[in-house]
Structure formats: structure tokens, C-alpha cells
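Sync notes, pocket subgroup
Present: LS, DG
LS reminded everyone that the earlier model was apo-only. Rerun requested with uridine-diphosphate-N-acetylglucosamine included. Inputs:
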Amino acid sequence: MSAFLVSGGNRLSGAVHVHGAKNSVLPILAATIMSGKVSVLHNCPDLKDVTASIQILEYLGCKVQREGGTVTVDSNPMSRCDIPDELMREMRSSVIFLGAILARTGRAVMSFPGGCELGSRPIDLHLSSLRALGAEIDEKSGCLYCAAPKLRGCEVNLSIPSVGATENTMLAACGSEGVTVITNAAREPEIADLQNFLIAMGARIQGAGSSTIIIEGGYPFHELSYRVMADRIVAATYLTAVAAAGGEVEIEDVDYRQLSTVTATLIEAGCYIRSDPKRVFISCTKPLFGVRPIRTAPYPGFLTDAQAPLMAALAKSQGTTVFVENIFENRYRHVAELMRMGADIRVEGRVAVVCGVNTLRGASVRATDLRGGAALVVAALGAEGDSRITGLGHIDRGYQDLDETLRSLGAAIWRTEDGETL
Ligand code: UD1
């Protein structure tokens, strides 16, 4: 079993480049099948979830080539419209293939998706939106059988601004006849990135980034080359790592506006932050203070994916911070592991009360989901002594070369195989 071995206490200094965004590239990879042509994607991160998406594309019959950060997908030879259960279980985002496959072939067969266990994570909004566009969907024994000989544009009003349901609807609507208007759409920057990709492919679509997205379906698609945006969640994780370990780091190639809730919180906690449109600089030289309650919310609110890494940083602070997790019902699984490191955190339902302690101690801990796993790395960097973090399969879903990048900043972190110690 592989593990991260972390010897805490080193201050971080230097500059890091942030890789392409997982949450952008996954729907974009799904969207490549709609054109039946060649799509060249630059700045594609090398992540477990990207590999899983490529496996789905290859299963469907597409030709995929990867050279460094460039992935080329030729979807012309696509010959299937089903996704086997083992590929669907790899990640939650596999469900975004549903809208794309329907738009391309008019039929799709797949099981329910897997992914991080953050609660029940239903897909009812995905299905009701596709049904509104004219898809007939039968749910039998954990499988979805979908048929849509003709998708027709319509009004889709999402009861929750779900990121995935907005993306699925956008893709299916691009392959529909007529106009689709999505109201209460998710406003995350990754939705705007997907829109930019679709426009570059020939689609007529506007409004992403606001809560109303208008799609004129039925336009032909063409070949394209597209650069995926930088990963704001990875950037947020590095910011919290510096806050936890102390130091001075410049995070390059990120749009500071997408990180404003995280940077504002870290300034309140006592960090110095300077931003411009392409980079964020953070300096943290003093112990952190507790901050006002953090309530996760759809964008532009505080991003749920940064909740766990920020909690890890604030576990060692002067004062108390209250977290309220409003997006997912079970996103505090990292708390028990942080408490093994000496954190003082009480959870009641959606609320976690973090009473800052003076020191965290290194411990043997296990990642149980992607961002919770990153939180354990953040805590270990700021802890006294050695930590061993297992469950790296979760962390590898969303962070490319996390240990190497942190080492380049001066952290003592190594990936090892079973049995090795520091
Ligand atoms: C995406 C992100 C994830 C992020 C989340 C919220 C990707 C690959 N993942 O996940 O990193 O944490 O947005 O910003 O982009 N819901 C329903 N019914 C549905 C769909 C969602 O009830 O059909 C609920 C979910 O259970 C959750 C909330 O809506 O409580 C938000 O989920 P959603 O925005 O869909 O998240 P994901 O797209 O799964």
C-alpha cells in the first residue's frame, strides 16, 4: 500500500505552477465525443479521474493519445453508446457522459456513477433535465437505459444549482433542436470553461457564469484545440498548506477572483496575500487566528472543496472557527483523522466547531475522500513530527505530483511503498 511520509515543521517557500482543472477537464473530455471530430486539449492534468475518462472514451471507440499535458481525442470512430459498470464506478463525473452520448447517438446505457462518498449524491436533477429535453430514461436494477431519437430544446429550471446537472444539460442541449434555457444554473468557473470549449467546437451558447444559460442547439461541430483552465481547488489547497506550515509562496497561473473567498478567510486568519490576475502570493509568518463562520455555498460562495484543507490549517490556530457544510451531507470524514493528530473538533450534523490548538502531532492517518485526503497532507505539513498518510488513491484523483510540488517548496514529504519509514 503506498503512503505519504511527511516530516512536519518545514516552512514552505518558492513558486508553484497549478495544473489544469480536474472539474473542467472531465466534462470537456465527455464533450469531445459530440463532434465526431478531433479535439486537442492542452493543460490536461495527469490524474486518476482523467485516466478513467480516457478509458471510457476508448471503450466507446474513440482514439485517444496523450503526450505530456496534451490529450488528443478523435471521436469519429465512436461505435458504442454504453459504459460498463466498472468504469462508471471509478468516479462520479462519468455521469456527464450521459448527456454527451445522448447528443451524439440518441441512445445510452450505463449504471449509476461512483465517486467520493460525501453523502447520498443523487442524480435526479441530471435525469429530470434530460427527460425535459425529450429523453426516455428507464431505471432498472441500478442501470439507466436512455433513448432520445430527437432531443428538443426547452426550459430547464434546476431546483438546486447542481454543477453536474448543469453540465449534463448543456451537453444534451447542444445536440437538441431549438433553444434551451437553463435557469438556476450552477455558476462555477468550470461551467464557463465548458461553455468556452463548446463555443470553440461550434456550439451557440451563452450565459455560463451567470444563473441563466441559453443554448441554441443543432449547430454542426468542428475540430478544435483548447486549453483547460487552471485548477482553483488545487491552488486553494496550496494556500492552506502555506497557512499551516508557514512560509512565502507564489502560486502561478491562477485567477485570484476565483479564490477570493479562500484568500479573504486566510487574510482574516492573519496571512498576508497579494494577488494579480495571474498569480497569488501568500506569506504566513505568525500563528493563525480563528475566523468568522465558514459556510460552504454554491459559487461564488465558499467552495465546499476547500472546506477540509482550510479546516486542517485552522486546526492549529488561536481561537475557534465554526464550519457549516451546506453542499454535501457527509463531508467531515477527515475530522476523525485530524483528531488523531491532536485537533480539537466537534461535529454535529452539518456544523463542525474547530477549537484551535497550539500544536498538531504527526500521526498515522488515512484519506477517505479526495479533499479530506489533501487536508491530511496540509495538517501533516504543519504538525510536529512524522505522519504517515494512506488512502492515496483518493488524493491521486485530483492532485498531480502533490508530493513533488510540495518538496520543491521545501516540504519533507515522500511517497513510499509499504513498510518504508522516514
Ligand atoms: C461538483 C464538483 C465537486 C464539487 C461540487 C460542488 C466535479 C467533477 N465535481 O460535483 O468537486 O464539490 O460540484 O461544487 O465538478 N444534487 C442532487 N441531485 C442531483 C445532483 C446534485 O440532489 O441530481 C445535490 C448533491 O447531492 C449536492 C448538491 O446537489 O448536495 C451539489 O451537487 P453538484 O453541484 O451536482 O456536485 P457535483 O457535480 O457532483
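DG: The mean pLDDT is 95.
LS: Residues 232-245 form the longest helix (14 residues).
Action: DG to write up.
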